[in-house]
Amino acid sequence: MDKEYELYARVIETGSLAAAGRALNLSPAMVSKRIARLEERLGARLLHRTTRKLTTTEAGQRFYERVVEILAASQEAERLVTGVAGEPSGRLRISAPTSFGRLHVAPHLKPFLDRWPRLKIELDLTDAYADLLAERFDLAIRIAPNVGNGLAGRRLAPNRRVLCASPEYLARHGIPKTLEDLAEHRLLAAASQLPWRLEGGNGPVLVHGESAVRTNSSEVVRELAIAGLGIALRSTWDVSGELRAGALQVVLPDHPGATDVGIFAVYPATNFVPASVSAFVDYLQALYAPEPSWDKGLFLPQQRPPNR
Fold first, then answer.
1. Shared-domain flag, residues 67 and 49
2. What are phi and psi of 236, to 5 degrees?
3. How far apart are CA 250 and CA 156, in angstroms?
4. Are 58 and 194 in a shared domain?
5. 139 strand-pairing partners
6. Looking at the domain assignment, is residue 272 inside a domain?
7. Per-chain mean pLDDT for the chain
8. Distances from the Cα of 306 to the Cαs of 68, 206, 257, in angstroms?
9. Which domain holds residue 274?
10. What is the number of domains present in the chain?
């Protein structure tokens, strides 16, 4: 039964019968035959197949989610017999935002893997919202207001954001004194990041506008701000080095970014959490606590406690 379940999971993860077959050394015809046999045994259609696309039915998606749990539990049972129960091993697939993953996850993988040499990590960096179940990620790092529906997880650190610009830009265009002054300045933001949500004396406020450069990349926005093109709303984990070095400076410090956003580690809400997931979340939480390295010694405006 495990082989049927593994085959079905591979089909969903790869998105095609042929790709799943290549992974398991089976012909597409044999994969199709086994999936049809599984559907017949279950008495339910699991997949919609066309010449271009393969998708799960509602029953097929629910079955896939349970199959993932069963396969994970089966692996843990084998480790129990071989005496390595609870030891992180196998593959750990992680999704993380591009900049955050590059700056604050990738540099810390070596000590973790040195501690757990039986573990293999796949780190996928993307600013897209990864579907953990559909794409079979074990864990995702998300910058969001909360863990999210249908998921479990832990808050790793606050996500503090400040308006900032280069000293050269401010020398040429002046330092804004009020939010209204921003209308006279160049704003820098990636697609869908405007309007900005800021904290004000009387609560949250919105700043509308258009970015001086249209881009889908937050890293491009960061570089444009450093180059002196305009004012950006950036997370301190992204620009703390530039703030300390003076390449950027905070403007309108009484109006930080909205504080209802944190940095979370999230994973599927199941009865079984793999040892690799627990170990990595523990590792990151210890790494960033009690104050993340990027905020240490950095002057920040007073902010309200984030919603949990």
1. yes
2. -65, -30
3. 24
4. no
5. 94
6. yes
7. 87
8. 34, 18, 11
9. 90-157+261-295
10. 3
Distance CA 151, CA 143 (A): 14
CA distances from 211 to 27, 43, 200 (A): 51, 54, 22
How many Å apart are CA 33 and CA 220, to the nearest integer? 48
Final residue belonging to a domain, choices 82, 105, 123: 82
- Report the pLDDT value the prediction gives residue 114, as an integer from 0 to 100: 96
List CB contacts of 163: < 8 A, sequence separation 6 or more. 196, 198, 231, 232, 233, 250, 251, 252, 255, 256
- Asked if residue 138 and residue 122 are part of one domain, the reply reads yes
Structure tokens at 30: 């044999």
In tens, the pLDDT along 180-227 reads: 999 999 999 998 899 999 998 788 899 999 999 999 999 999 999 999
- Which tokens belong to 17? 């019968």
pLDDT for the residue numbered 22: 83
What percent of the chain clears pLDDT 70, i.e. is strictly above it? 92
